[in-house]
Amino acid sequence: xxxxxxxxxxxxxxxxxxxxxxxxxxxxxxxxxxxxxxxxxxxxxxxxxxxxxxxxxxxxxxxxxxxxxxxxxxxxxxxxxxxxxxxxxxxxxxxxxxxxxxxxxxxxxxxxxxxxxxxxxxxxxxxxxxxxxxxxxxxxxxxxxxxxxxxxxxxxxxxxxxxxxxxxxxxxxxxxxxxxxxxxxxxxxxxxxxxxxxxxxxxxxxxxxxxxxxxxxxxxxxxxxxxxxxxxxxxxxxxxxxxxxxxxxxxxxxxxxxxxxxxxxxxxxxxxxx
Length: 274
Ligand code: 15L
Hints:
Layout: E1 9-13, H1 18-27, E2 32-37, E3 48-52, H2 58-65, E4 70-73, H3 83-104, E5 108-114, H4 138-157, E6 160-166, H5 180-183, H6 187-199, E7 205-210, H7 239-244
Parallel strand pairs: 1-2, 1-4, 2-3, 4-5, 5-6, 6-7
Bound molecules: D-galactaro-1,5-lactone (15L).
D-galactaro-1,5-lactone binds next to loops.
């Protein structure tokens, strides 16, 4: 990063989505917020600027980037979808965001990656930030692409970049099934994690797992202790109740970190996936 980061204005892309809405409410008054989405964003509150735009539109990305200190890039398709949807939103859109940030002199980009970038690692393996990409879907491939772009823009252009491999951000208060005993992140932990990534004065390129303090967590964040992320919630208090339901996870899903994304369109051989 070129010089210390003093954050004034944050651009949140995908601000009308599930994570965006929660961050918007939590950061109102704390940062100057520029909120962008292709979907309607409602009325602007004091301290907010709203930009309705398509991230596949490079010129629109350049305009929304002016005067921004830090981007929280959440925009794009958030689940598996057809390539025709993933390509403009998650590939071209992600490129447009990083490139517009570079051109505008933005110092930091926090990219919402996903556990699905590494979804085909076996679940019995505890994985960290250095494991190879093993996407489980086209969506997962788009997250690997975004992480690679982040690495490029950090090394080549000096942007400070954090890639958040988010687990399951759904129910604010509790996990909903057995896999989420591992992968759940509560809303308040997500707010804390992104805030730490915004406020930390100096890092070059980091990969962080977005997960609560779950007893059954299988993702190692020891590389980013310096951020001071101290998740407050633990899915485990719901474990007995969830496991008593006796739900059986899909045979393929249960073997891999990516869970229910891994059996989608699956016609491979699980025994070959080491
Ligand atoms: C994701 O990346 C998705 O955006 C979300 O819908 C969840 O399915 C989550 O991963 C998960 O792995 O549970």
